[in-house]
Amino acid sequence: MNKINELIYSLNSIARSGWMINGVEPCKAETVSQHLFASALIALELSSSLNNADKYKAASIALIHDIGESIIGDISKSANIDKSKSEKEAIEKLDLNKDIKQLYMLYESEDTLEGIIAKISDLLSTYLISLKYEKEGYNVKDIKNNVKEQIILLSKKHNIEKNVTEFLKRIEE
Q1: Going by C-beta distance under 8 Å and a sequence separation of 6 or more, which residues neighbour residue 132?
Q2: DSSP secondary structure letters along 144-167
Q3: How many whole angstroms separate alpha carbon 44 and alpha carbon 130?
Q4: CA-CA to 26 of 20 to 30 Å: which in 70, 75, 83, 138?
Q5: φ/ψ of residue 136, rounded to 5
Q6: Using CA atoms, how far apart are residues 90 and 86, in angstroms rounded to an integer?
Q7: Burial class (CB in 10 A: 0-12, 13-18, 19+), 60
Q8: Which stretch of DSSP H or E encloses residue 59?
Q9: Digit-coded pLDDT (tens) for 90-100
Q10: How far is residue 69's CA from residue 90's CA, in Å, rounded to a whole number?
Q11: Which of 165, 54, 168, 48 is nearest to 114 (CA)?
Q12: How far is 150 from 32, CA to CA, in rounded Å?
């Protein structure tokens, strides 16, 4: 895949598989693009509450964290496939500038606060949409609970639990 338009078309049309596995119809399932956009907005919001974070870098990392799915598709966590390895290989195949590829590596490495914020924002985005689907009557409780647990663990591990907990309270209202 060499063209940015093909990448965008692909990400716009790939429904996230976890929702469909849990009964959300493909026409209602969040796409990868929707997830990336929500993750970036959340990263911007969350990083704005942290004095030592580059909010634009965090949002940029969150915005591209799943672009490899334009080649490999959305792989459910239940598939027992090393998605990280598959996605890294896909990123290398994409005709993207080195800056975008470097942002992806920051997401994978958890070496920077911005990469960690992007990872937590990815989870928060999933949690947020799980709340919506649950209100609509879909049985996504397992996804919601597992993701919330991951959010708390990751935020504790990186000492930003207070900021993340405050964000969670706002979206759960």
Answers
A1: none
A2: HHHHHHHHHHHHHHTT-HHHHHHH
A3: 20
A4: 83
A5: -80, 0
A6: 6
A7: buried
A8: helix 55-64
A9: 777 777 888 98
A10: 8
A11: 54
A12: 20
Give the residue, 5 or 84, on which the prediction is more confident: 5
Distances (CA, A) of 55 to 28, 108, 127, 147: 30, 18, 21, 23
User: Tokens in use for 1?
Assistant: 């895949």
Q: Which residue has the tokens 């004095």?
A: 51
What pLDDT shows up at residue 77? 58
User: How many C-beta atoms surround the C-beta of residue 125 within 10 A?
Assistant: 24
For residue 137, how many other CB atoms are within 10 A of its CB?
8
Angle at 145 between CA 59 and CA 17, to 5 degrees: 65
Please give the Cα distance from 70 to 14 (Å, whole number). 8
Let me know: does 163 contact 46? Beta carbons within 8 Å. yes
Q: Please report, as a single letter, which amino acid is at residue 165.
A: T
Quick: pLDDT tens for 130-148. Answer: 999 999 999 999 999 999 9
- Residue pointed to by tokens 């590596």: 105
| Contact (CB, 8 A) for 115 and 33 | no
The counts of H helices and E strands in the chain are 10, 0
Above 50 in pLDDT, residue 1? no
Query: Model-level pTM?
Result: 0.90
